[in-house]
Amino acid sequence: MSTERCLEDFIGAWNITRKIVPAHGPSAEFAGQGVWTPTTTGAEYAETGVLTMPGAPPMTAERRYVWGQDLSVHFDDGRFFHQVPACGGTASHFCDPDTYDVEYDFEDWPTFTVSYAVHGPRKDYVMRSTYCRTQ
Asked: 24 in the Ramachandran plot: left (φ > 0), alpha (ψ -120 to 50) or beta?
């Protein structure tokens, strides 16, 4: 079992590689960097990189979240997304009408993986991201 993680463990810059595998169609890949920056109430997470898909030119991709001291993750507009299990494990988020099941694996810390299985009438894919500390 992995050691319990706290927000301070994530602070800083991380290289990210990601593979997105839809139920139907070609896979996509993302390579970039994620940065957790401390705030007075937790941390802001900002991710930027390049998304590549077969038959399309590479495109810039980014996302932002707000993390609480308790490892709660919120969208940048304040809506709750999910709770990161401190020792690794699973969480879920229902975004009507689709369900996001996520698994955090901290066994190889300071490298860790986050895997999503997204299912519903609008979305059907698996996404696996690997984070490696840069600082």
From this structure: beta
Long-range Cβ contacts of 87-91 (<8 Å, 24+ apart): 87/1, 87/2, 87/3, 87/4, 87/5, 88/1, 88/2, 88/5, 88/112
Provide the terminal-to-terminal Cα distance of the chain, rounded to the nearest Å: 25
Distance CA(29)–CA(18), nearest Å, equals 6
- What is the distance between the alpha carbons of residues 102 and 88, in angstroms, rounded to a whole number? 10
Q: DSSP for 37-71?
A: EE-SSEEEEEEEEEEE-TTS--EEEEEEEEEETT-
Q: Report long-range pairs for 96-104 (Cβ below 8 Å, ≥24 apart).
A: 97/121, 97/122, 98/122, 98/123
Residue 121 to residues 7, 101, 110, 118, 124: CA-CA distances in angstroms? 34, 15, 36, 10, 8
Tens digit of pLDDT for each residue in 20-69? Answer: 999 999 999 999 999 999 999 999 999 999 999 999 999 999 999 999 99
132, 111 contact by CB (below 8 A): yes
